[in-house]
């Protein structure tokens, strides 16, 4: 979601204030939330944290991308979430539409990760069945850490060979696309215990159906998009599940919600 290239708070999140409306109403520095997010992050065995943004009328896009809905605080929160994660997962559609480059967290987040004994940046994991990706795509060419590419059994063999030069290419599951459960097993096998999923809507829908969304962090922008933008989930009719409210943050007219998905 949002602008993946942006590092709005290069020195960390200390200077960014946000209103926590619930629980414990207070004005807090974003950086204060990070230790809590780390402690509360669901284990890979339970699924991922999904981070998405929506307009008030339920659109996941403004002018075809989510970035127009975002704000500097929302961007900083995204950097914070990335900094806590071991792996950041995104579908190839979002990668293409939003123009992902190499996944880097801000300088302040690198410093925090070092203090935790973590690598400087999380691993970017891209889901693609068709593998119409190129070794010189910015997300590969500019990657600070070798990315993962997760695919299915019908992936073209020549693309697998070419991409294996610059990424770890993994067939996860035995279907045409990567299976969400097999993807999480692969992360666990690699010692990646904190998973952040940045969508897009078709990926999130599959992960939700497979019970792999443990938490949803949804920013609700103070804007109406109109038009025919898709929702944050787009897929087959799924099984509805309840969600328990964990936190509400406010920045101006934007609300940032955290829910545990049942
Ligand atoms: N509001 C938000 O928070 C938010 C977040 C993210 C994206 N978006 C918006 O959503 C739109 C893109 O939507 P989308 O649904 O097309 O994006 P998407 O879910 O990121 O991408 C779909 C693509 O991901 C790959 N894919 C999906 N499931 C797969 C699986 N199980 N195994 C392997 N590959 C898989 C396929 O790529 P291949 O075609 O390469 O096989 C598929 O075409 C953009 O406009 C973007 O701006 C909004």
Description:
With 262 residues, this protein is of the alpha/beta class. The chain has one domain (40-255): Dihydrofolate Reductase, subunit A (3-Layer(aba) Sandwich), CATH 3.40.430. 27% of the residues lie in helices and 24% in strands. An 11-stranded mixed sheet has the order 2-1-10-11-9-3-8-4-5-6-7, with helices on both faces. Helix 5 (138-141) links the parallel strand 5 (123-127) and strand 6 (148-151). Helix 1 (30-40) packs parallel to helix 2 (72-84) and helix 2 (72-84) runs parallel beside helix 4. The longest helix has 13 residues, at 72-84. Mean pLDDT is 94; it is low at 1-12. It binds NADP nicotinamide-adenine-dinucleotide phosphate (NAP). Residues 1, 52-53, 60-61, 64-66, 90-94, 97-98, 127-130, 132, 151-152, 177-178, 198-203, 206, 232, 234 line the site of NADP nicotinamide-adenine-dinucleotide phosphate (NAP).
Descriptors:
DHFR-like_dom_sf; Riboflavin_Biosynth_HTPR; alpha/beta; RibDG_C; oxidoreductase; 24% strand; 262 residues; Dihydrofolate Reductase, subunit A; 11-stranded mixed sheet; binds NADP nicotinamide-adenine-dinucleotide phosphate; 11 strands; Pyrimidine reductase family protein; 8 helices
Task: Provide a compact summary of the structure.
This protein is 27% helix and 24% strand. By secondary structure, the protein is α/β, with parallel strands linked by helices. α2 (72-84) packs parallel to α4 (107-115).
């Amino acid at each position: 979601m949002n602008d993946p290239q942006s590092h709005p708070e290069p020195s960390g999140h200390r200077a960014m204030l946000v209103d926590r409306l619930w629980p414990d109403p207070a004005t807090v520095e974003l950086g204060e939330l990070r230790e809590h997010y780390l402690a509360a992050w669901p284990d890979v065995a339970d699924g991922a944290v999904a981070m998405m943004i929506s307009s008030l009328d339920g659109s996941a896009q403004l002018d075809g991308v989510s970035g127009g809905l975002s704000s500097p605080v929302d961007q900083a929160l995204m950097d914070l979430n990335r900094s806590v994660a071991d792996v950041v997962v995104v579908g190839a559609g979002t990668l293409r539409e939003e123009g992902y480059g190499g996944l880097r967290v801000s300088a302040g987040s690198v410093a925090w990760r070092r203090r935790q004994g973590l690598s400087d940046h999380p691993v970017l994991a891209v889901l693609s069945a068709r593998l119409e990706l190129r070794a010189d795509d910015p997300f590969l060419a500019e990657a600070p850490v070798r990315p993962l590419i997760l695919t299915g059994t019908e992936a073209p063999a020549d693309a697998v060979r070419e991409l294996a030069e610059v990424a770890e290419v993994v067939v996860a599951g035995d279907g045409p696309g990567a299976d969400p459960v097999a993807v999480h097993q692969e992360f666990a096998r690699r010692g990646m215990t904190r998973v952040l999923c940045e969508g897009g809507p078709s990926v999130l829908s599959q992960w939700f159906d497979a019970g792999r969304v443990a938490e949803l962090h949804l920013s609700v922008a103070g804007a109406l998009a109109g038009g025919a933008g898709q929702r944050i989930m787009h897929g087959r009719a799924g099984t509805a599940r309840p969600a328990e409210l964990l936190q509400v943050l406010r920045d101006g007219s934007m609300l940032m919600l955290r829910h545990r998905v049942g």
